[in-house]
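Entry 14. Ran structure prediction on the chain below.
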Amino acid sequence: MELKVYNINGSETGRTISLDDSIFAIEPNDHAIYLDCKQYLADQRQGTSKAKERSENAHSTRKLKRQKGTGGARSGDLKSPVFVGGGRIFGPKPRDYRFKLNIKVKRLARRSALSYKAADNAMTVVENFAFDAPKTKKMVEVLNKLNVNDKKSLFVVENQNNFVSLSARNLKNVKVVSVSQLNTYDIVNATNIVVSEGSIPEITRVLATK
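Output, structure tokens:
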């Protein structure tokens, strides 16, 4: 697969870059994408939700009324879950939502997600670029010239450039990641992917079948 290489002004450079079909043109595996996205989202969960159960509630243990003869249902103390302020039945407890996923499945998921983007013409290759200072205005200009200003965009750069990241930090629909930070969820979540020319060989190396 061949893609044109653009500069940050949105103009064609006259060059093309060859993408490895084993990375960018495979038959996508939807289940692998699902598992990798599920693991990513599970890793974001704090797992600190907690509700008090009956034994943890600070109420008196006094029986509220006699067992029989009242005409109503029998009841115990105020800790009962049927009363307002009582303990919760099977309430949430702190837990770890993380789970293991084989590295081969994760690589397959990333290759599948990239193949979807390449097939949908939602991938743009630009020359390597860096900013001299963090300027949000400059990043907005780059987005406008690449015609991705109205899309949820993911920038993939070879090495993390703090100035580029800081320039995009205040932009709602823009995220900048290095190749080592690239994950399936970000690829799927983005409408368009802008990939620096120098990051293509690194992506190919990282995601190569092993």
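The chain has seven helices and six strands. Will compare against last week's run tomorrow.
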